[in-house]
Amino acid sequence: MYAIVEIAGQQFKVAKDQKVFVHRLKDDEGADVSFDKVLLHADGENITLGAPAIDGASVTAKVVKHLKGDKVIVFKKKRRKGYRKKNGHRQYLTELQIGDIAVSGGSSKSASSSKKKEEPKKEAKKVEAKKVEAKKAEAKKETTDLSKHTVAELKEMAKQRGLEGYSALKKAELIELLSK
């Protein structure tokens, strides 16, 4: 079971008993905090999705400690100008221990609903395949004698068929491409 929750302006994927480092929070060490902006909750195959957040859902966490992150060195230089600036930065962080993930509302999507969505997609793919076959049959009828067409007409045929890279080809190359 996990949830995607927004904490201090950033989104985190959290699970029970997980430790998370977030931007510094104002709460004291040892304090319990609750975050109600839960964007997604997953419990096995059941997925609850918010729009944008799930109503009534919350994640509780305990502030373990406040600390500073690793030093990041910012070095700016302009060559041949004698300009060099070196700066360091350490981000203030809060370590959280995720406690409980509670959900009481939202729309639930399960694996069975996703299977229902896959069936129409398969039918659409079959219909699309038939259309492609019909286009190929039509193209074979046109390929009887391509040498009678001008280069501009051949390029237009290549464009209609969705072929790429035809703009720089010569007439013989276009005929060979279209006859495939």
Walk me through what this model shows.
The protein has 180 residues and is an alpha+beta fold. The chain has 3 helices and 9 strands; from the N terminus they run βββββββββααα. Strand 5 and strand 6 form a beta hairpin. Helix 2 runs parallel beside helix 3. The longest helix has 32 residues. The two termini are 53 Å apart.
Question: Briefly, what is this?
Answer:
The chain is of the alpha+beta class.
Strand and helix layout:
Layout: E1 2-7, E2 10-15, E3 19-23, E4 32-35, E5 38-43, E6 46-49, E7 58-78, E8 83-102, E9 107-109, H1 111-142, H2 151-160, H3 171-178
Antiparallel strand pairs: 1-2, 1-5, 3-8, 4-7, 5-6, 6-9, 7-8
Helix pairs in contact: 2-3
